[in-house]
Specification:
heterodimer, A: two-stranded antiparallel ribbon, 6 strands
């Protein structure tokens, strides 16, 4: 099964990305983590995202387009990236999520991909 | 003269009672689909009801049910694929493939593998809402229907049934592993399983006069689950501790009520009415648990009940030993129940004033905790603080759900205080 690890970060963690010194320990941890995912042969894909203030939210209501500056949900911790992994069970996904560097500063949500929904789109 | 119809019905009832959980566990642990396994087994039981009376009861009723249920699962999966034109998840297909080849052979020789432990760990998985751990166990392992579970948990049947459907969907769709956790996780995961089993039992708090257990009260079911656990995990002392605790409390079931249905607190119970076989079994379990030298919450709670059970032999209650055990329990697991229990024991050893001070310390957390008010009321009464005692009794009565406990509290409220 494929699982998405959705990485939620604090505002401080997003800020740290802009100061190389403060960010270096975190980046070092991420390098090790990324390497271990690839070496385990479970890494499918993923990417970090820009900070939430770089987000633009689009809605269309009754044919009318509404564009709004900022992220969809106005919460303290925001989606900062995602990783897709191929794993046998939720338990192994939780195990890998608990090793993710982001767990020490934010949170990681584990969510299975929904291939059956995708199959209905890819006809 | 035997009646084949009655024999068949009896055989179905027996196999359903003894093997339901094993059959569901076996099927679900291979497909990750608890609801699908339950439905398929339900169909197989219906098929047995029509076939066995005419064809006779098969040599191995379990094997017959498993084969029939497995075929239903495979059929249903095929239909589902054709209708939806959606590829099923790969491991499901593999599992069904496996099921269709691998079931017959091992079944003939020996009982098929017992996967109930895996199923119990799935039901109490940390990814499942803790409030659903017990209902899931009761349904998947014991086959209780949603309406019966809803009654025990005092929620609407449709609400309970929706929650069960949702929890089973989460097990299936997120791929929760059907496995016994590794040693480094076992302790924590087992705690969740034990808590869920104990939640089905409710509590055996007749130890304190006027405590309403507000219990779920599925005592036989909970003891049965604990026996499954102790059979599969014989080296885990807390499993035996929990089984012992529930057996001690259950041994007093008959003594807890008068012939007129009146509630009788532990201190006024006639030990001759306790079930000595249950107490003996509890003692054996507790001794075996203690041999591991790994004390825990349930072993301590069982030890407290063991001390109470001693009265059957000695005629007196060793409150000082009980207070010491509560001290340990509060240090290990400072639940409200343990703290209130300790206060009640301290009252017997050191007097009501010291006990009341212990209750004052937890005042803020206990506003709607019935046992707190019942014990508080009795302590205030013993200290002759009649007005406060009456107010506390009123709160305890208001919070109690068992009518027998309510009338016991009302009787105590109006009784003449005995100073102590």
């Amino acid at each position: 099964m494929k699982y998405a690890l959705l990485i939620y970060e604090t505002p401080e963690s997003f800020d740290n990305r802009r100061s190389p010194n403060a960010n270096e320990p975190m980046l070092a941890a991420w390098r090790v983590y990324y390497r271990s995912l690839v070496d385990a042969g479970i890494y499918v894909g993923g990417d970090p995202l820009h900070a939430p203030e770089m987000g633009t939210t689009v809605r269309v209501t009754g044919g009318k387009r509404a564009i709004q500056d900022g992220p969809y949900a106005d919460t303290k911790e925001q989606l900062g990236g995602f990783i897709i992994l191929e794993l046998p069970s939720l338990d192994s996904a939780i195990e890998w999520a608990s090793r993710c560097p982001a767990t020490s500063i934010g949170a990681v949500e584990v969510r299975p991909l929904a291939p059956d929904v995708k199959a209905r789109i890819e006809v | 003269m035997t009646d084949p119809r009655r024999d068949a019905h009896r055989a179905i009832e027996a196999v359903a009672r003894h093997s339901y959980g094993r059959l569901v566990a076996y099927l679900a642990s291979r497909t990750h689909d608890v609801a699908g396994a339950e439905d398929a087994l339900g169909d197989a039981l219906v098929a047995a009801l029509t076939k066995w009376p005419s064809d006779g009861v098969p040599n191995s009723p379990e094997a017959w049910l498993l084969t029939t249920a497995r075929n239903r699962l495979i059929d249903r999966n095929r239909h589902h694929r054709v209708r939806e034109r959606v590829r099923e998840r790969v491991h499901n297909e593999d599992a069904l493939e496996l099921l269709s080849h691998g079931v017959e052979e091992p079944m003939q020789a020996d009982p098929f593998p017992d996967d109930r432990l895996k199923l119990l760990f799935v039901c109490a998985h940390p990814a499942i809402d803790p409030a659903m751990h017990t209902p899931l166990m009761l349904q998947a392992v014991l086959g209780l229907d949603a309406a019966a579970i809803a009654r025990a948990f005092v929620v609407a049947p449709t609400t309970m049934s929706q929650r069960l459907v949702r929890a089973k969907a989460k097990i299936r769709e997120t791929g929760i592993a059907f496995e016994v956790p590794e040693a480094d996780q076992l302790g924590e995961r087992l705690e969740a399983v034990l808590n869920a089993v104990y939640a089905a039992f409710g509590s055996g708090w007749d130890a304190i006069p006027g405590i309403d257990s507000a219990s779920v009260g599925l005592t036989d079911e909970a003891i049965w689950l604990a026996r499954v656990l102790s059979e599969r995990l014989p080296d885990e002392p807390e499993v035996r501790g929990l089984l012992a605790l529930m057996l001690y409390c259950d041994a007093r079931r008959a003594a807890r009520r008068g012939s007129d249905g009146r509630f009788i607190p532990l201190s006024e119970q006639d030990p001759a009415r306790w079930d000595s076989a249950s107490i003996a079994e509890a003692e054996r379990e507790l001794v075996l648990a203690g041999a591991a030298y790994r004390p825990g919450r349930f072993q301590l709670e069982a030890a407290i009940q063991s001390a109470h059970a001693e009265r059957a032999r000695t005629g007196v209650t060793d409150w000082s030993a009980i207070a010491t055990l509560y001290e340990g329990l509060v240090r290990l697991a400072p639940t409200l129940g343990a703290q209130v229990g300790r206060a009640a024991a301290v009252a017997e050893v050191h007097g009501a004033a010291m006990a009341l001070a212990l209750l004052d310390d937890i005042d803020a957390q206990a506003a709607s905790y019935q046992p707190y008010w019942a014990v508080r009321a009795h302590l205030l009464q013993r200290l002759a603080r009649i007005g406060e005692a009456e107010a506390a009794f009123d709160r305890a009565v208001h919070l109690a759900t068992d009518p027998a406990v309510r009338s016991f509290l009302q009787r105590s409220r109006n009784a003449r205080p005995h100073l102590g």
